[in-house]
Amino acid sequence: MAEPVVATYSIVACDLEAQQWGVAVQSKFLAVGSVVPWAEPEVGAVATQAWANPSYGPNGLVLLREGLSAEEVVERLTTADAGRDERQLGVVDARGRSASFTGPGCLDWAGGRTGTGYAAQGNILVGAETVDALAETFEATAATGASLAERLLDCLAAAQRAGGDRRGQQSASLLVVERAGGYAKLSDVVVDLRVDDHPRPIEELRRIYVIHDRLFGRTPESEWLPIEGALAEELRERLGLLGYDGEVAAALDAWAGTENLEERLERDGSRIDPVVLEALREQSG
User: Fold this and answer.
1) How confident is the model over 25-42, as pLDDT tens digits?
2) What gap in Å lies between CA 97 and CA 81, rounded to an integer?
3) What phi and psi, each to the nearest 5 degrees, are found at residue 243?
4) 3.20.20.80, 3.60.20.10, 1.10.10.10, 3.40.630.30: which CATH number matches 3-216?
5) Mean pLDDT score, 251-274
6) How far is residue 119's CA from residue 78's CA, in Å, rounded to a whole number?
7) Which segments of the chain are extended strands (E)?
8) pTM score, whole prediction
9) Of 101, 114, 167, 282, which is least surrounded by CB within 10 A?
């Protein structure tokens, strides 16, 4: 049975250069991330909301996997759904084509906006400016070098500043996928973060994302520092202060594993990620 995911705005989007697809959503609804966002790398992304039909997510991904365009997927799903008048749906496909659907029975203000690589939609909003902020922020951040996750968070924040949901805030989520882009390069999930119940869910989502990025983000290899000379001695001293003695590479590996920073390690111990160095300096005083 469908669930009413009320007072919701979302953006589904992709970064074709990075080969990432994602969804960001905020709602006056408990645990919105358990219903709205769906994504699969090299296939596409789907957001199902308003009087949400949860089957739109997995069924939409099946259709995208078969090669249908975003517009064709929206048409196929809504045509077969007797409750479509109260649904909202956003889709981005593997090629960055997008489509958004708002049924005539959705509560005002409700509507959507699409562009290359994104579809933005919302219902029970203060007005069109919320969806406009989603779209315009995504477009404006295209050339900034920011990751898809960061851009989607910026979109949510801009939409809230523009007025957001007419009924307020409660939950938010961020989902980004990339083929073998997640943990240990064995997962397709780059980011899957949810704030289920919070007075300022977007701010809390960003706070959690900053922690996530520190643990699992990627620093360009050109910025890594060789472990030699004075830096090697500093690492030895700081690790010793924390109780990790012995050969630097082994001690660093043991400490980083304890602090969940193992994804940012160079296993041969020849270089160090500046983020890891900063964390070690902070912890060792």
Assistant:
1) 999 999 999 999 999 999
2) 23
3) 90, 15
4) 3.60.20.10
5) 93
6) 16
7) 3-5, 8-15, 20-27, 37-40, 44-52, 87-93, 98-102, 111-115, 118-123, 171-177, 189-195, 225-226, 271-272
8) 0.92
9) 282
